[in-house]
Amino acid sequence: MKGFSRAQKAKRFYIKRDFVAEGARMIVGVVGKANVGKSTFFKAATLAEVEIANYPFATINPNEGIGYVKVECADKDFNVQCDPREGFCIDHKRFVPIQMIDVAGLVPEAHLGKGMGNQFLDDLRQADVLIHVIDVAGSTNEKGEPVDPGSYDPARDVRFLEVEIDMWYLGILKKGWEKFARELQQEKKEVHKALAKQLSGLKVTEEMVEDTLKKLRLDPSQISSWGEDDLEKLAIELRKQTKPMIVACNKIDIKDAYQNYERLSKEFPDRLFVPCSAESELALREAAKQDLIRYIPGEKSFEVTDSRKLSEQQKKALDFIETDILDRYGNTGVQQVLDKAVFELMEYIAIFPGGANKLADKDGNVMPDCFLLPQGSTALDFAYHVHTDLGDHFIRAIDAKTKMAVGKDYELKHRDVLEIITDK
Fold it and tell me: What's the CA gap between 109 and 271, in Å, rounded?
């Protein structure tokens, strides 16, 4: 995996050997303070039935559903139409399923138990990447209460949510720290292994800890002398690696929203911001579900199938979405947030199983599967991802596009189509 740090390689090894074992899905957490449109975003992405209300803590228990990332389907390269086993494909746009959770709204000092803080944070343990939904129009205050647009600075939300999650990591790290550090130093145990074990529930690996200690210049042999600042820096670095975050700038159609989006992008140049309108995306997906329009999620336009079926209110809503959202921004942003979270932030690629001479499975389904793997994954990693037996008995793989054989160390490329050859 040329070009990756040891920590990145470790993360990929962890993901490949545990999280994505035999096709398990990535888990995307939707987070944010109360009443910013989290549940609307979640429903737009999944069409799951969730409670959407204009008051704080409409979400108490986490909602779970299936969202989809969009890939240019490899069936296009073979002039065929695929038959997805999971997800769907429209006009050679393949929608690959991911697991999504929408957790209770966060308030400042949630890590101290305020609001639904403790429950919120515990629900986040399983997530691999976070989508932070903010009200970029500044029409919701720190308590999640509606205020006049522009009267609240959404930059405060960007800062406070990261602080809450970082402090949650710090709290876990500090639990029983003095005894833990003393025992490690006295018994001369390997610090990176012990810390990784302690934080394994957060998907921290030994290599991540080892590289982070070097980066922060923390001496493992003097662990008992590490101060509060040292532990906080360690917690923040490990959080960034295990819970990377993309910011969905929701309510982009409201006054002052776009100016705030541009300002935030400059104020936080190391963050990934995407303008979006969850309400618009939800309206389009619901209309498409009822066959009122033809719409591919994430596209810049839609087509009304029969205007006679639309009420005047629906026509006005669709006109607004077309003019104020799609024409202005090119999309609603919801699909783009999912795609960027997986393919840019997490640096995943899509791989299709398929025979070099036959793309269909034994039931005649053409290219029924598509899997998401980390960049830097090999043909052998892919074999294990599909099924343990394929990895254990791997001989070689064949690139269905080139008909060329590749070895176990072949580094996968986005949209590869591979056939795995085994010894049984």
Answer: 22
